[in-house]
Design brief:
Elements lengths: L14 H10 L2 H4 L4 E4 L1 H7 L3 E3 L5 E4 L8 E8 L4 E10 L5 E7 L3 E5 L5 H30 L3
Parallel strand pairs: 1-7
Antiparallel strand pairs: 1-2, 3-4, 3-7, 4-5, 5-6
């Protein structure tokens, strides 16, 4: 793989190449890496496992020093693939406080920010397609039961 970002690169089993791909990815592709798992009740509600993170989403930290703590997303850094959460801060040796960057993969979305119509529509669209697929499967199974041997 070349040093520049390759649009044609598919995948590799080698972790170093996977990391390089993510590191060299342009911002519009790097944004896709800022997603996290949904909580159990949100999974049932929307019929999907994960969603992209947005500011003001309520998240729970699942791994690391701050595991178990919850807070709203304050800021996201797409270039470094990190998230900054309200109330999660540390002190430098000089006494100045700073927000701790946290990887998106270590978060779980507890409550979604539904102020944006576009986001609501995308969540509903996926739920509708899942419901349609489920009803199609039910119809097929009923037809198979009706057929005489």
């Amino acid at each position: 793989m070349k040093a520049q970002f390759s649009k044609t690169w598919n995948t590799s089993k080698q972790p170093r190449k996977q990391r390089k791909y993510r590191h060299n990815a342009p911002l519009h592709i790097g944004r896709k890496y800022l997603s996290a798992h949904l909580s159990k009740h949100l999974r049932k509600e929307y019929g999907r496992r994960s969603a992209k993170l947005r500011t003001e989403d309520l998240v729970k930290i699942m791994r690391g020093e701050y595991a178990g703590k919850e807070g709203k997303i304050q800021k996201m850094d797409v270039s470094k693939s990190t998230v900054f959460i309200e109330g999660i801060s540390d002190k430098r040796s000089g006494g100045k406080e700073f927000n701790v960057p946290i990887q998106a993969s270590n978060l779980q979305i507890v409550e979604l920010n539904l102020k944006d119509e576009r986001r609501i529509n995308t969540l509903k669209k996926i739920k509708k397609t899942a419901a349609k697929a489920e009803s199609r499967l039910r119809k097929q199974s009923q037809k198979q039961k009706r057929k005489p041997l």
